[in-house]
Amino acid sequence: MNSNKETAIEADAKVPAIRITRDFAATPEQLFRAHTDPVLFARWIGPDAMPPRIVYWDPRPGGSWRYVTEHEGVEYGFHGCFHQVRPDRIVQTFTFEGQPDGVALETLTFETLGERRTRLHAQSLCDSFEARDAWLASGMESGVDQGYAKLDRLLADGAV
Amino acid sequence: MNSNKETAIEADAKVPAIRITRDFAATPEQLFRAHTDPVLFARWIGPDAMPPRIVYWDPRPGGSWRYVTEHEGVEYGFHGCFHQVRPDRIVQTFTFEGQPDGVALETLTFETLGERRTRLHAQSLCDSFEARDAWLASGMESGVDQGYAKLDRLLADGAV
């Protein structure tokens, strides 16, 4: 059975959040590992052309993380804290260092759909609709799609 | 010159946030210390009847914090991470452990108004209007007022 390879990316109508929904041929535990193990995470996150380098990564409640990517000689940084880390739910903060005062609150939940199928729900909460809409308009969708496609391949290869 | 002792607590009309505004007879540096030094923080935060005990507190970006209070034999816990810590701006996550899946993103900014007068802007961003409204309806306002009154006294005593 193939996973649903369509990533749904929606702007919430009521709150300044982006909601992403994506199904994987995986268990919840595999998705949890993919999002918390830094070696695994670095193998799939983001656009194919911009593999990240993990600078630090402590995936426990109260821990923090940072990675950098590079494109055409320019380095881009991302960092945040892990607020909650549970097998079915991760809450973390997220800042793109190109906008150092911007911060989103990310909530990831892993919903089992049955035999080795899990639905990822990812909510990115911004503090204004302007910030949310600018993020959506920034071209983030292709990077998200490419990342999940790499994760599909890692799962299929038994690497997670 | 007296500080404005009125705390303004407002529900944002557009986003699920609570906005608190309060003036202090203080410099921005004093308000920053009051919010980041755990010994000072514990002397003013919250209702007078519920002094907190700091369990851990690392006020650096990527650090985490937790404190507990007690009322009529029941212990209440609060914890989060410090996402950003700058002299004019602090961003942290906040969970009340009575609702362990609830989390707010708190942004505190310290705006100088001139000679030893500073305006605190505190924004608490929730992920739903229901959560925001329930928090407002919970009686949090008197605890906020009592806390700021204690901070006024600490400032007047030269303790900050």
TrEMBL record, chains A, B:
Residues 26-155 form the Activator of Hsp90 ATPase homologue 1/2-like C-terminal domain. It holds the Pfam family AHSA1. Gene3D superfamilies: 3.30.530.20. Belongs to the AHA1 family. This is SRPBCC family protein. It comes from Marinactinospora rubrisoli. The lineage of its organism: Bacteria, Bacillati, Actinomycetota, Actinomycetes, Streptosporangiales.
